Request: fold
Amino acid sequence: MTETILPTPSHTVGPFYGYALPFPEGEQIAPKGHPDTIVLHGYVLDGHGDPVPDALLEFWQAAPDRSLAGAPGSLRRNPVTGGFLGRNGTDFTGFGRVATDADGHYALHTLQPGTAGVPYISVCVFARGLLHHLFTRAYLADGTDPLLDSVERERRATLIARPGENRAYRFDIRLQGEGETVFLEFP
Amino acid sequence: MTHTQSDIDTAIDELQNAYDEALAAGAPARHHPRRDYAPYRSSLLRHPKQPLVPVHGGDPETVELSGPVFGPTDITETDNDLTVQHQGEPLGERITVSGRLLDRAGHPVRGQLIELWQANASGRYAHLRDQHPAPLDPNFTGVGRTLTDGEGRYTFTTIKPGAYPWRNHTNAWRPAHIHFSVFGTAFTQRLVTQMYFPNDPLFPYDPILRSVTDRAARERLVAAYRHDLSRPEFSLGYEWDIVLDGPSATWIEEGH
Reply:
C-alpha cells in the first residue's frame, strides 16, 4: 500500500464536547454484574499537577478470549426516543469512553483483556488545550513486553496500573512534568 | 496577563516563519499541529515535554492496529439530520455537509462512526459552560452521528454555525466550524478535528487553525462549496473529505 493522499490534520476536542461525545454506560465495558469486573481508575493531571476536569478518555482492548474483533453496541440507541438503551449485557464491545469528573477523575469498569503477553488497555486522551490526542497504555501487570522493555527504567512505571483493593487498578495520566506519562506513536 | 490579538499575531507569525524556513530547508511537511503551540494558551500545561515512544509493528497482538466497531444499533435514523431533532425548525442557514472517509491509500473506510457537534447559528453551544450573550435555539442542539456507507460517504443536514468569542486573549473569535470525531479500522487512525467554511475572514487570527503550520494541511480543514450538493429550495451544499492517518492491520499485512 502506498500513501497517495495526505491526512486531515487533528484539532483539539475543545471545551464543549460534553453534550455530544460522552454516552450513558460509556464506562461500562464489562457486562453489568459480571463477577470478574475490574475497575481502572485514576486522575488526569496537567503540568502543575492540577486535575484536568475536561479530559475525555477512550479505551480499546482485547476481549477476555483475546479477540480484537470488537462488537457494535457501545452506544446502543433507543430508536423511539432518540436516547440511549445502554449496552446489551452480552456483547463485549471492547470500547469505552469516559469524561473526567470535575476533580479530574475517571473510572472504567471492564474485564481483563486476554493475551499471551502482559495484558494492557489502550488509552486515547483528548482535552481542551491538547491539539492532537495522545495514546498511552495501561498495563495491568509488569512483565516482559516489547514496549515496556523499550522504555527507560524510570519511566516504565508510568505505564503500569497499580492494583488495589476490590479489583481496582490505579492509573493516573500526567500530561506534563514530573512523572510525565509515557505517550506513544505508531510510525 | 491578558494578551492582545497583536501579541497572539506576533507569536503565530514567529512559529509560522520558523516552520516555513524549516520546510524550505528540506524538513518534512508536518500534517498535524504541534502540541506545544503557545499562542493557544490552554496548550501550555497540557502537552508532554518528553518525546513520544514509538510502538513498532510486527506484533500481531498490537491492540491499536484494530479498533472499535459500530453498527446500526449505535445510531438512529434521524441522527444525521440536526434540523429534525426538535418540535420546530432551527434558525439559520440550512446546509448539507457530505464527503468521503478515506485512508492514506485513498481507500474508502466503510461502516465507521462519524460524530459531529457544533454551535448554533448565533455561535452558541448548548453547553452550560458557554455563557456568551448569544441566544440558545430551542430547536437546535447541535449533535449528529452517522455511519459511513459502502463508498465511505457520510452526509449531514445541519445549520451553518456562527463564529463565537472565546477567552484565549482579548477579542478572540473562533471562525465558524463544525467539530468531527471519526473512527477508522484501527485505533491508531482515531481523529478528532474541526471543519471550516471557505473564505472566513477570521482564519488568520485563530491560533487553533494556525496551530497547523503547514499551509496545504490547513486548506484540508476547509470544506468546499459544491453547488451540486445544494438542494433546491432547501440547503446549501459543502463537501469535505476526511483522510485518516496512522497504520492499520491491513497496512501491516501488506508489508509495512
Observations:
- Chain A touches chain B through 81 residues (CB under 8 Å).
